[in-house]
Amino acid sequence: MDMNSGLAVRLAQPDDPIRDDEREVLPRPAVLAMPRQRLTHVKTRGFGAQTPEASESIPDTSPVDIVRRRVIFFGSTLALLALAMATPVGIALQDGFTALTAAGVLVLSVLLLALSAWFVNAVIGLSVLVTGKGRDPVCLDGPTPAPAGRTAMLMPIYHEDAEAAVGRLARIEGSLAALGAQRNFDLFVLSDSRRDEVAEAEWIAFSALREAAECPVYYRRRAENHERKVGNLADWVRRFGSAYEYMVVLDADSSMSGATLLKLVDAMERHPGVGLIQTTPTIVGGSTLFSRVSQFAVKLYGRVAGAGLAWWCGSEATYWGHNAIIRTEAFASSAGLPKLKGRKPFGGHVMSHDVIEAALLRRNGWAVHIAADLPDSSEETPPSLADFMVRERRWAQGNLQHLALITAPGLHWISRIQFIMGAMAYLASPLWLISVIVGLAMELQSPTDWDSFLYVLTPKLSPFLWGSALCGALLLGPKIMGLGLVLSRRAERRAFGGAAMLLKNAAIEAAVSAVTAPVLMARNSRTVFEVLIGRDSGWAPQRREAEAMSASEGVRQHKWELGVGLTLATALVFRPDLSLVFAPIIAPMLLTGPISALLSDPRLGERLRKHALLMTPEELPQHATVPPRAEPHTPWSLPTAEPAPVIRLVAS
């Protein structure tokens, strides 16, 4: 196939300076205006400026029905919170309400509010999955007609393993080609990489894909990576957006099947009021204990949460920044991000852009949906606890930045709730740490009581212990729901290796989650503090390949968590009878070095795989959804030719 057809050689222009010897492998320009939105001004341009119109563009989701669902969700959340707080408040009143007790109860109530919301969301999701009622009908079951419009597949990359990233894009291309949809999808590799050797690897991988692919494939490397990923995507929209009805945004570790992509395009074509449809990606490719546990947990429990979100969010759903289809014109007219006033981290360029883009789309009248039951959408996760924390640091700053936008005019109130929920994902950690410190301080006011050494097994409980037990129950509940759902379905139970294997794997996942939760609590508490004092996270590339670390290296990576554990353990010198009570929280932090080393060891991950532990259905050959290409020269086998001049920086 001649991939040069339709390409334009772009020479220097006054408004877009490029040296004469530089070239891009890109389609002809198709300019589309994408103005920056003002958060102090309400825009109503676009389809369905009124909220009900966008909602009514989807069958069975009338405004009245959505209001009823939200009354159920928020009412149940508040009711569960009141029920959960009744016992701690009662115990506090009985023991005497001091200032310390009041502070502890206040912190506990905020923490339990967030956990109650996610618990109720899981209950709703389980009900939807069991009964089949209340599913978001934006994507239909059954055959999918051929798409009428053109869709761009966009993969922004920044200092990635080029062969692996382009290889994922190649598998997507192969799946589309197998369905005969290659003429409806164009693939773009949008590089922000700074190092020339990385760019050369990108060009080699791109050239191999372009040579074998049936879909048109393009490559661009920006001269200046202003505004990070969001700037890269905005540049593409402004230069080429009017040629494509839809764009699918991918991360470098994303994968989607052709069948899922066709269903997404079909949904957009049937519902002209929909601006964005977000899939619920699972995790694949885990090679360490940490990544395999994450992979297993998301596959087993994630769809329960996704179904719940889709049920009560309706057309005011959210966006996670990848594995989603977007109406290009809607995005261009609605989602140009402003530069926030003030200094970093709350000012400057928007970091966690996705939730804000969804809110701006909705503000402009476009519906945003979650397709919770669409399969074959996946991503990868960091291979180690330390790498996961690096990513969490960046996400935390972005989510906390949203707190300054809660009062922006014109936003739907559900969008504001989503800003708060995103921030609470990280604020929950310092709240938990504060509750631990307050609980320990309350206990230190009483003398040592060795009769309470087995405190957890006795009826004598403090507000702190009740609160900790309730938090644990609310966290564990959604996992039990997801496990119970699979156990109740024979085909799914067998796909996970049978009931016995499923229960064994769920126990491993629960154990790993239990030992990593206090470590993440300590690190995220520090992260929130750093953000609040103005420390920026920067833009470090994500490490995706597993590398074993020693226990000493683990200690070096987690000195902060070890320090928090030692501080709490030192306080127990004054109440050694409470050691069993606080051991589940303190012990993992004291052992964080060897724990992190164990979780990051790819050899352990391989042994688990050999023993069929933590396996997901996708890892079984009969469940593969993206067929390999039949050509002897596959798109991801790299040629030995020298890289062409296209790897040179191209002006943005």
Give a written overview of the molecule:
There is one protein chain. With 652 residues, the protein is of the alpha/beta class. The protein folds into 2 domains: 48-138 and 271-539 and 548-615, no CATH class; 150-252 and 620-652, Rossmann fold (3-Layer(aba) Sandwich). The protein has 20 helices and 12 strands. It has helices spanning 51-56, 63-95, 99-131, 162-178, 196-212, 228-240, 258-270, 289-313, 328-334, 353-363, 385-401, 413-444, 463-487, 490-495, 499-532, 551-557, 559-571, 579-590, 592-599, 602-610; strands spanning 7-8, 26-27, 151-157, 185-191, 217-221, 246-249, 255-256, 274-279, 282-283, 324-327, 367-371, 377-379. The strands form 3 sheets. Strands 5-4-3-6-10-8-11 form a 7-stranded mixed β-sheet, sandwiched between helices. Strands 7-12-9 form a 3-stranded mixed β-sheet. A two-stranded antiparallel sheet has the order 1-2. Helix 3 packs parallel to helix 13 (463-487), helix 8 (289-313) crosses helix 15 (499-532) and helix 17 packs antiparallel against helix 18 (579-590). The protein is globular and about 80 Å long. The two termini are 30 Å apart.
